């Protein structure tokens, strides 16, 4: 069960996040830039079906096995986590990430089956993130997802023997933390633009807050 959980998360979730970071990096440049950057072009039901097979199914396996292990309250040694609290944090961020992904897919990915493309997804996100509660949900959800992916990938590298010892632990956690932080910054820039029309910076701090009129 642990091996299935580790492999399904270590291989799929980071790839899923990398693809999404590649797409949303263009959001601050506007609708047209996002559509052009969207992986697979404008999208549609065929792309949605491919994503379901190659991405969503492994994520479902990862989520189910993770919940199974959490409910079972695994009591063994906390290694390769640096501390038991780190393992608890992984479970908490995992549940938050799961709830966020379900919410996000419900109003962005699922409509692809009806023929939605990247342009429609962009318009929907602009509309939904104008609501402060939804924007806050995205901030919390994306933060939890990045943290979960970073520690999960580091633990996978240690558990499978790719990296060993204290030096390996530092390298694993350091590398994945930096990558996750970069992805988080890109994601927050996208959320800020969708919610307010401004990216994080002087203009945003000067008053382009949630609920403000957007350009």
Topology:
Layout: H1 2-24, H2 31-37, H3 45-71, H4 84-109, H5 118-128, H6 132-159, H7 165-196, H8 202-205
Helix pairs in contact: 1-3, 1-6, 1-7, 2-5, 3-4, 4-6, 6-7
SS element count, helices: 8
Q: What is the element string, with H for helices and E for strands?
A: HHHHHHHH
- Average of the residue pLDDT scores: 77
Topology, number of strands: 0
Instruction: Decide which structural class fits the backbone.
Output: mainly alpha
Strand content: under 5%
Helix content: over 70%
Q: Spans of 5+ residues with little confidence (pLDDT < 50)? A: 203-213
Rg is 18 Å
For the largest beta-sheet, the strand count, sense and barrel status come to:
none
- What would you call the shape? globular
* End-to-end C-alpha gap: 50 Å
What are the key terms here?
215 residues; globular
Describe this structure in words.
- It is a single chain.
- It is built from eight helices and no strands.
- The protein is globular, with a radius of gyration of 18 Å.
- It has 215 residues and is mostly helical.
How would you sum up this structure in a few lines?
By secondary structure, this protein is mainly α.
């Amino acid at each position: 069960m642990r091996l299935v959980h580790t492999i399904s998360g270590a291989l799929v979730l980071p790839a899923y996040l990398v693809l999404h970071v590649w797409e949303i990096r263009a959001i601050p440049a506007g609708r047209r830039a996002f559509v052009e950057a969207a992986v697979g072009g404008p999208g549609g039901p065929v792309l949605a079906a491919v994503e379901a097979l190659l991405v969503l199914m492994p994520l479902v396996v990862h989520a189910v096995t993770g919940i199974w292990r959490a409910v079972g309250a695994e009591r063994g040694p906390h290694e390769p986590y640096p501390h038991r609290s780190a393992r608890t944090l992984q479970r908490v961020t995992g549940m938050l990430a799961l709830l966020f992904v379900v919410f996000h897919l419900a109003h962005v990915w699922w409509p692809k089956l009806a023929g939605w493309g990247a342009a429609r997804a962009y318009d929907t996100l602009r509309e939904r993130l104008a609501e402060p509660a939804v924007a806050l949900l995205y901030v919390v959800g994306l933060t939890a997802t990045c943290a979960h992916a970073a520690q999960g990938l580091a633990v996978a590298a240690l558990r499978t023997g790719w990296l060993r010892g204290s030096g390996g632990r530092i390298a694993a956690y350091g590398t994945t933390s930096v990558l996750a932080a970069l992805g988080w910054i890109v994601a927050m820039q996208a959320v800020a633009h969708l919610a307010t029309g401004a990216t994080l910076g002087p203009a945003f701090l000067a008053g382009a807050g949630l609920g403000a009129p957007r350009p």
